[in-house]
Amino acid sequence: MSTSLAKLLQEQRHRLDALIELLERERLLLADAEIDGQTLADIAQQKRERLEALEATETLRQRIQKRLGYAAGSVGARDATQDAGCLAAWEQTLERTREAERLNGTNGQLIQLRMSQNQRLLDFIHDAAEKTLYGASGQVGAQSGRLNTSV
Asked: Which domains are assigned to the chain?
């Protein structure tokens, strides 16, 4: 049991490390002045794949924990890893999970900021388009309160 749980935790940490590396790349892309949409889309797909793999590994760990008679949740996980001699590996896994969660939250905030900036820019363009000096025919339209210089 201790060998299989230790190997499973090691696999989780490797997957978490790969996810964290991906989240750090995403953060750098989001911080750039020019956004590379295709690369961000690729990263989003890779994140989904990594999260699915992590979920599968975690589901397996929980099943093993339950099958061995340990309580569900963090208390049972702590007891199982302590009895298996891999408590330090479990704590490292938890720390890496918290790091991934922190980075993902930061990236979410950066995305929200970008979306807000984009919306303000679109609103500005929309407002400017409504106040255009040119009509649909391309001719200068009459503007109230302005001098008509075409006379």
From this structure: 2-130 (1.20.58.300)
